[in-house]
Amino acid sequence: MKIEFSYILKEHGWAIGTLKSRDFSAEFNASYLHDTLNSIINALIELLTDRKRVVIPFYDEPGEHQIVIEKIDSTKITIELRWYEAYATDYMIDTEKYESLFKGETTLKSLVSNGFDSIKRILDEEGIDGYKEKWRHEFPVSDYKKLTELLSFD
Predict the structure, then answer these.
(1) What is the rounded (10 degree) CA torsion for 29, 46, 23, 28?
(2) What is the rounded distance in angstroms from the CA atom of residue 154 to the CA atom of residue 133?
(3) What is the pLDDT of residue 85?
(4) Which residues, listed in sequence order, are joined to residue 80 by a DSSP beta bridge?
(5) What average pLDDT does range 50-59 have in this prediction?
(6) Fewer CB atoms inside 10 A, N or C side of the chain?
């Protein structure tokens, strides 16, 4: 199944994540309360190296969406979109109390490509200073470079 992922900065302190497949489409907010872009970059790095499961939080105000990604094997992954009524990641609420909005399989290569395209577009459009002004967090330059290096060996 083809699953498309994107992440786009909007107005100051807000971004939009999207997941789309043939039978499903969702947009979800991301607040500056969590540095989601850095979480995306690190999740991709971890999946390309040694991690089997990663979680990317998208804080809304209130509530939290999470994208939970698990490797099936070296090329295939499952992606699940979860909704929590409160912040699950930093505040350690009952992490088993969520609504599963979507679950599907795709390739690791597709996810990494979609994620990297979103990250690169943000850097190209906003620049390092513009990102900080809009997002109130530093652009994760060293992690971005590490991800770029991992992808150059593909």
Answers:
(1) 0
(2) 33
(3) 85
(4) 68, 103
(5) 95
(6) C
pTM of the predicted model as reported, rounded to 2 decimal places: 0.93
The candidate with the shortest Cα–Cα distance to 120, out of 86, 83, 145, is 145
Structure tokens given for 121: 């577009």
- Cα→Cα distances 65→11, 83, 88, 133, Å: 19, 5, 9, 24
Nearest to 71 by CA among 43, 51, 42: 51
Do the Cβ atoms of 9 and 122 come closer than 8 Å? yes
Look up the CATH architecture of domain 4-152.
Answer: 2-Layer Sandwich (3.30)
d(CA 83, CA 143): 27
Pick from 107, 111, 36: nearest CA to 72: 107
Distance CA 86, CA 97 (A): 10
User: How far, in Å, CA of 132 to CA of 91, rounded?
Assistant: 25
Within 10 Å of residue 67's Cβ, how many Cβ atoms?
23
Copy the structure tokens of residue 18: 């999207």
